[in-house]
Amino acid sequence: SYVDDTFGASLASEMTFYAPYGRDFPTAQAKMLRLWDALGVPHEEQKQLFSEQLTIIGFEVDPNAMTITMPTQSRHDLLEATKDFRMNQRLPLRSFQRMAGWINWSLNVYPLLCPALSALYAKTAGKRNPHEPMYVNKAIQEEFAWFRAHVTRSDGICVLSSEEWGP
Question: Which InterPro entries does the UniProt record give (predicted)?
């Protein structure tokens, strides 16, 4: 059995001591760890994170402020990569796929910038050989410029909305 990630929310005042790790955890997390112990599910202390802010898949998540933020260095690196990619004339398919993945990752913070991938996806559609050389066309260059302009003007914070659940 293996569990990669589980998430939950609890009040900072609701902490319970978990003896095997010798420290307090949010009560629900401590209960889950005890259940895993009873079932023989392995887990590691270093993976048992809790905080008012957490880094999740490279983004800074603040559940109290209801925000997801791309770290400044990550944002800078992405913008530079789109500039470098744009200036290259011929690259292997693998480079196109990596750039698509990187921009797709950033859409967690910039969800309205999906159109920046349209030309890139169209260019790579149906291609299979990761070493196949391909030209960066004008449409990709224009979409990357559009993407950079919007990311540069954005504060890099995605504000989440909250809905009250009830019967």
Answer: DNA/RNA_pol_sf, Hepadnavirus_pol/RT
Strand partners, 69: 60, 157
DSSP 44-82: -GGG----SSEEETTEEEETTTTEEE--HHHHHHHHHHH
Token duo for residue 166: 């009830």
Q: 89-102 burial by CB neighbour count: b if 16+ within 10 A, else e?
A: eebebebbeebbee
* Per-residue confidence in pLDDT tens, the chain, 167 aa: 555 667 777 888 999 999 999 999 999 999 999 999 999 999 988 888 888 888 888 999 888 888 889 999 999 999 999 998 876 689 999 999 999 999 999 999 999 999 999 999 999 999 999 999 999 999 999 999 999 999 999 887 877 776 666 66
Distance CA 98, CA 134 (A): 14
Place of tokens 């939950």: 8
Helix axes 72-87, 138-153, angle to 10 degrees: 160
Q: How far apart are CA 100 and CA 121, in angstroms?
A: 8
Which two structure tokens, joined as six digits, stand for 110?
């910039």
**Domains parsed from the chain with CATH numbers:** 13-50 (no CATH), 72-159 (3.30.70)
